């Protein structure tokens, strides 16, 4: 009976998937010396230099306090800079941070290859898109 509860519980199943994917991502991003979340934050900064901390938080679905801690750690490592423009904190990559772009991309591709090898490319892509859509719905964004 418990097995049925666990299999049919979105909370349990989503957390199980999160633990599995977190372990895979941490393994693949270890080469970069960054956590997966820090690497994705840098990827967002590469995409839009001078992005606001608020916009980064919204993009990555992270609370302001979490964003502040992540950014501070990356500033201490010399990978990011922050400058104040009015009420906004604008985030940019340093040269040292920009130098990691290729490594981060390779880590991301290795992670993608790892799960698509297990799931298949089509199923991996469909699952990712479906989970993104469901997350938006559960956050009442639609």
Automatic annotation (TrEMBL):
Residues 7-136 form the HTH marR-type domain. InterPro entries: HTH_MarR-typ (IPR000835), WH-like_DNA-bd_sf (IPR036388), WH_DNA-bd_sf (IPR036390). PROSITE patterns: HTH_MARR_2 (PS50995). Keywords: DNA-binding, Transcription, Transcription regulation. Transmembrane segments: none annotated. It comes from the Bacteria. This is MarR family winged helix-turn-helix transcriptional regulator. The lineage of its organism: Bacteria, Bacillati, Bacillota, Bacilli, Bacillales.
């Amino acid at each position: 009976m418990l097995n049925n509860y666990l299999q049919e519980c979105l909370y349990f199943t989503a957390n199980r998937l999160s633990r599995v994917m977190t372990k895979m991502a941490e393994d693949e991003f270890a080469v970069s010396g960054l956590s997966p979340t820090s690497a994705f934050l840098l990827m967002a900064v590469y995409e839009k230099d001078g992005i606001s901390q608020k916009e980064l938080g919204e993009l990555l679905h992270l609370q302001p306090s979490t964003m502040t801690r992540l950014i501070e750690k990356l500033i201490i490592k010399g990978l990011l800079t922050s400058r104040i423009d009015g009420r906004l904190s604008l985030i940019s990559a340093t040269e040292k941070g920009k130098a990691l772009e290729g490594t981060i991309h390779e880590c991301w591709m290795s992670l993608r290859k790892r799960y698509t090898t297990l799931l298949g490319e089509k199923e991996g892509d469909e699952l990712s898109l479906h989970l993104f859509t469901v997350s938006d719905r559960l956050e009442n964004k639609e």
